[in-house]
Structure formats: structure tokens, C-alpha cells
Amino acid sequence: MRGAVFHALTVNQFDVPLVWELMERAEWLRGLDREEARTRLQGKIVATLFYEPSTRTRLSFESAVLRLGGSVVGAENARESSSSKKGETLEDVFRVVGCYADAIVIRHHDQHELDRAARFSPVPIVNAGAGSGEHPTQALLDVYTMWRELGRIEHLTVAVMGDLKYGRTVHSLLRLLAKFPGVRVRLFHPAPLGLPDDLARELAASGLALERAPDLASAIRGADVVYQTRIQFERLGGEVDPNAASLYALTKDHLALLPDHARILHPLPRVGEIAPEVDDDVRAAYFRQVENGLYMRMALLDAMLGGERR
Ligand code: NCD
User: Which of 42, 81, 144, 220 has its Cβ near the most Cβ atoms within 10 Å?
Assistant: First the structure.
């Protein structure tokens, strides 16, 4: 963004002023008419490479590029359909695709490989979710949603629930929230799905106020934000009871524990951990969060490739 090749691999690359700059840019892009927005990435090509399944994130990035007037080339199911099947390294993929495209949006199964290979890319790399590592653009859109819905990020009490072990959205979100003053986090999760030890240590060192709630009610009572997530069964080796989500699933009855101004977020897809009856409550913000995701991804790509804001 400032400088030659700017990647978005982890939220640790983002400081608070940069998050603000992106949120302001997202607001500005939201206000542009479609015609004007289409001038921003005119003539630019963005490649999307998805080595793991995705619907919404890929479509969200592709829509973001198209709305900014850019073009998309891509490989869905890249693990099977690309030359990685022939044994090509990710660093070579970036060197090659970097000759075709102005930026590369990638979902990959290995955060370490992604971090290492990105150094060889001649164009910006955007991490669209890496294994059970990070999902930085999701965290950016999550805090953007908190700010839009609640007017601030500082001093919020956030209940984070579900699969904290394998959930990459949670890993990025907690790291990002740790940068804002006064945020308090309550964690609630099925026993085997707590935060990875290294992340728990990193967050403790960052000074984030983090506590583990004994039950669902104590986690959400009086919280400003409830951040709900699904269990990542596809990453588990059978160590979790298939009904484990019932421990922390939100129903209409739980809404009474939340203040009127509270907001419920979820990166989606949900698979039963928020009952559909919750959707009609104004505090259910997860579909507005999806829309914010489009504008935040537009903002990131615009900051990387579109140049100065007018
Ligand atoms: C999340 C992901 O892929 O990590 N989904 C998304 O990007 N919207 C959450 C999930 O799969 O549980």
C-alpha cells in the first residue's frame, strides 16, 4: 500500500491507523455511485487461487474487483486443478501468476508456506484464509462491522464462542482486537477446542484482557458483541462430539441476556450454532456483516492497486 509490494497475510501487519484508513476508505467506496467506483481498478487484473473450498469469500473478493472495474482470472479448487498437482511450489505459482495479474487473492491450507512463498511474489498477495492459521480480511470486516454497528471498537466486551482451536477467523480477530485499547474478551468453547497455546501466550503478552467463561450465559451476559463460530469438523480428527455445538448454540431465549445495543456476529457459514429464529432480531448483524465484507475487500484492493482516494 505504501511502498512497493504490500501483502495482507496476517493481521499483525495492520496497525490501528491502517485499520482506520481502510474503514474510512470502505465508507468512501460505499458512497460512490457504481459508475465512479468502476474507475478505481480499471485495467487491473486480480487472480483468485482457491486451494480450499469457499463460496462467499471468493465471490466477495471477485465482486469487489468487478465493482471497482477490474477483471478477475481464477482457479477454483486449485489443489486439484492447478500445477500444484504436478508438484509445483507455491513460490513458483506466485512468480508465474504474478506475471499475469496485478494482485493475487489466495486461500491455502498452510499459513507457513503462504508466508514464506509470498516473499517471492512480484505482486501483492491477499490471504483469503489459510488452514487453521489466519483470515485477515475477515477480521478487518469484523471490526469494521463492530464500528458501524456500535460506533466504536475501543472498550468493547466481546464474547467469542465456538471452535477457537481451528477457527482462523477467531485467530485473526483476537490478534486485531488486541491492538485496540480496553477491549475485553470472554471465551467459551467445547473443552477440546480452546485457543492454541502459542496464540494464547501471544495474546497474553499483548495485554488483551482475556477470560474463559464457565458457561454460555456468563459468556454473553451484558456483552457488547457476541462472535459466534462453527466447529471446523473438516479439520478435526474425531476428538469432538458431533453434538458439541449444542453447548453454545444461540436461541431466542438467550437474547434476554444481551443489552439492546449488543450485536451478534458470525463469519458464516453457520451450521446450527445460531437458530434461524434469532435472525429477525435487530441485534443479529451477521448478514449486514457480509455486506460490510464486500466494502472492506474493495477498500483493501483499492488501497493496494487503486492509488490515492479522491
Ligand atoms: C470462514 C472461513 O473460511 O474461515 N468463512 C468465511 O470465510 N466466511 C469461517 C468458517 O469456515 O467457519
Answer: 220
How confident is the model over 162-182, as a mean pLDDT?
98
Task: State the distance between the two ends of the chain, measured CA to CA, in whole angstroms.
Answer: 16
CA of 261 to the centre of ligand 1 (A): 26
| Beta-sheet strand order (sheet of 184-188) | 209-212, 184-188, 157-161, 225-228, 263-265
Query: Cα(102) to centroid of ligand 1, in Å?
Result: 25
For 178-204, give one letter per residue: b (16+ CB within 10 A) or e: bbbeebbbbbbbbeebebeeebbebbe
User: For 50-79, what is the mean pLDDT?
Assistant: 91
Judge contact between 141 and 207, C-beta under 8 A: no
Identify the DSSP state of 254. Answer: G
Closest ligand 1 atom, CA of 54? 3
User: What's the rounded Cα separation, in Å, for the pair 51 and 119?
Assistant: 19
What percent of the chain clears pLDDT 70, i.e. is strictly above it? 97
Query: pLDDT above 90 covers what percent of the chain?
Result: 87
